[in-house]
Amino acid sequence: MKLAVVSAGLSSPSSTRLLADRLTAATLDHMDHMEASHEVTVVELRELATEIAQHLVTGFPPARLAAALDTVAAADGLIAVTPVFAASYSGLFKSFFDLIDKDALTGTPVLVGATGGTARHGLVTEHAMRPLFTHLRAPVVPTAVYAASEDWGRAGLARRITRAGTELARAMGSVTPTTRHADPQDVVPDLDTAAAIAPRSPTGAITSTDPANGLGTTSFAQRLAALQAG
Question: Gene3D superfamilies per the record (predicted)?
């Protein structure tokens, strides 16, 4: 099973990345008990910040960002962790998921986590992150994990991480091809976002149009005309 981990931490070292790593370890530990093979890919959004901004204003993702989007779209499970900015997820985190095709995460189990300086933002996973992935039709496991500065080293956080990882591993084990991704006949063209006019990969993610990657190049005017004709 393929597990993708998206960390939106901005510093190095990062408490957000630390939480992502601990959630990943908890998930893999339970997958080992299930005797399930696994493949883990970590996407550090900090390293893709320039490419994300470039894609937002041009509609053309650089190859490294396209690979990250395809990795997330092809995963059997996703761990998504963000620092809290202004009582919500960070702009970098939201921008990355704005570039994911609206059908790419359909049926993909997601474990959400967040880090912040104080406990007062503890519900950010429920009022901001869970609705975001529900909009993308990705089921979010019941236990979300928020870690404030004072939580690190406490048994309560460790227990919550273990429970959340167990829930994600079990959810990934129950995923079948029929529960992942929408039937192509049921797909409604996304006309609401800038991502709607960007090229897509076979897995549904927006991807590169670089001919070196084996994909043809279609002009903006051609894609817009095709959408209008549809």
Answer: 3.40.50.360
Cβ atoms 63, 4 nearer than 8 A: no
Residue 59 has pLDDT above 90, yes or no: no
pTM, two decimal places:
0.80
Confidence of residue 226 (pLDDT cuts 50, 70, 90): low
| Helix, coil or strand: residue 114 | strand
Q: Which pLDDT does position 35 carry in this prediction? A: 81
Asked whether the beta carbons of 43 and 86 are under 8 A apart, the reply is no
For residue 80, CA distances in Å to 110, 151, 176, 194 come to: 7, 19, 21, 22
Residue range 150-154: mean pLDDT, rounded:
92
Q: What is the DSSP letter of 206?
A: B
Alpha-helical regions (H) of 4-48:
15-33
**N-to-C CA span, the chain:** 36
Phi, psi of 227 (to 5 degrees): -65, -40
- Residue 149 neighbours by CB under 8 Å, 6+ apart: 15, 116, 117, 118
The arithmetic mean of pLDDT across residues 68-84, rounded, is: 97
